[in-house]
Amino acid sequence: MSTQPLRQLLEGAFPDATELDVIDRTGGGDHFQVVVTSPSLAGLSLVEQHRRVYEALSGPLGDGTIHELRIKTRGAA
Amino acid sequence: MSYTDKIKEVIDGSDVAIFMKGTPAFVMCGNSDRALQALRRAGAPVTAVDVLPDPQIRQELSTISGWPTIPQVFVKGELVGGADIVEELEQSGDLEQTLREKLGDDYASSRDEKTVALA
After folding, report:
1. How far, in Å, CA of A69 to CA of B81, rounded?
2. CA B81, B87, B90: angle at the middle one, nearest 5?
3. B15, B63 in Cβ contact below 8 A?
4. Which CATH architecture has domain B4-104?
5. pTM of the model
6. Closest CA relative to residue A15, chosen from A34, A32, A39
7. What per-residue confidence (pLDDT) applies to B110?
8. What is the domain partition of chain A in residue ranges?
9. Chain B interface mutation, best of A33, A34, A50, A65, highest count of B Cβ atoms under 10 Å
10. Helix (H, G, I), strand (E, B) or coil at B118
11. 3-state secondary structure of B20
């Protein structure tokens, strides 16, 4: 899987994101690093912030398209 | 057969529990290793559970925790997070502070590391 569909899912879940990046860590299309900075994450614990990302990517996570996911989130604008 | 009761027992009964792929002596996944190393750097007493012997362990764990990936780290029954969060908290010093608050100032004195087999 390319990074584009993942980016679209994240853009849909975090329309107000000030930073949004998806990196294919190995080039193999299944190990990804995502970075999301969004005001909608402000005030949430890291666990809750990562949960939002997991929810946004539940499709590709559930069907095994994403083998490994690294997440970096920030609540600031 | 269900693992749910055993899983809850480990989560609630351990100071620090990590559900991982492999064991501390033989880690089978990079992310499990990252979380374990962060816990070690913080001096945490660790109770480890290998989820690999039966895929059902992982399924039931994720149902309990609402967290889809492995590893999962709990302190005194509360989900702290996966490898990224544990690493981030360790680097910022927040992990040590949480351990101090929940386990007491001398939490690192035991540096206990044990493995519990569920299957």
Report:
1. 13
2. 105
3. no
4. 3-Layer(aba) Sandwich (3.40)
5. 0.94
6. A39
7. 77
8. 3-74
9. A50
10. coil
11. strand
Question: Length of chain B, please?
Answer: 119
Residues, chain A, total? Answer: 77
ipTM: 0.90
The reply to whether residue A46 touches residue B89, judged by beta carbons under 8 angstroms, is yes
CB distance B80–A47 less than 8 Å? yes
* Closest CA of chain B from A50, distance in Å: 9
A77 falls in which pLDDT band (50, 70, 90)?
low
Residues from chain A contacting residue B84 (CB–CB below 8 Å): 50, 70-72
Dig out the tokens for A71 from the structure. Answer: 């997440």
Residue B6 to chain A, least CA–CA distance (Å): 23
Question: What pLDDT does residue A38 have?
Answer: 97
On chain B, the residues whose CB falls within 8 A of the CB of A58 are: 68
| CATH classification code of A3-74 | 3.30.300.90
